[in-house]
Amino acid sequence: MRPTCESDLSSPSRFVRAVFTKYHSSCQPEETAAVNHFFHILATVAMAEGTVKVGSANDKTIYSSCINMDKGLYYYTTYQNSRPACVSLHHADPDSITLKVYPFLTEPDFLYQN
């Protein structure tokens, strides 16, 4: 009998899968490649709506994000829009007393080529 490798959507299982994927994949050093690679790794553990129920609600991955602390760039994707968006934190006025809000891009963003 062959051993089986079962996978589930529990937090520990998803964490182990993400770590395994990170250490068994290759990534180019350029920032755009690294950010793209990061989102591919997170996609391997993202929860599709309806795969897990919490009470009567469907659980899902609402958004994924990463940040380049040196450049002050915050990257994110949302459940509805998997195209990475970027907010430059250095373009904000650090002395402002007004909270600046950048709404998540939640509408699908398709690039039609023809």
Which labels suit this protein?
three-stranded antiparallel sheet; alpha+beta; 5 strands; single chain; 114 residues; two-stranded antiparallel ribbon; 2 helices; 19% strand
How does this structure look, described?
With 114 residues, the chain is an alpha+beta fold. The chain is built from 2 helices and 5 strands. The strands form 2 sheets. A 3-stranded antiparallel β-sheet has the order 3-4-5, with helices on one face. The mean pLDDT is 87.
Protein topology:
Elements: H1 11-23, H2 31-43, E1 52-54, E2 57-59, E3 63-68, E4 73-78, E5 85-88
Percent range of helical residues? 10-25%
So how many helices? Answer: 2
Strands ordered across the widest β-sheet: 3-4-5
Class derived from helix and strand content: alpha+beta
Radius of gyration: 17 Å
First and last CA, distance? 51 Å
Helix and strand succession?
Answer: HHEEEEE
Low-confidence segments, ≥5 residues, pLDDT <50?
Answer: none
In percent terms, what proportion of residues is strand? 15-25%
> Average pLDDT value?
87
Largest sheet: 3 strands, antiparallel
Shape: globular
- Using DSSP, what is the number of strands? 5
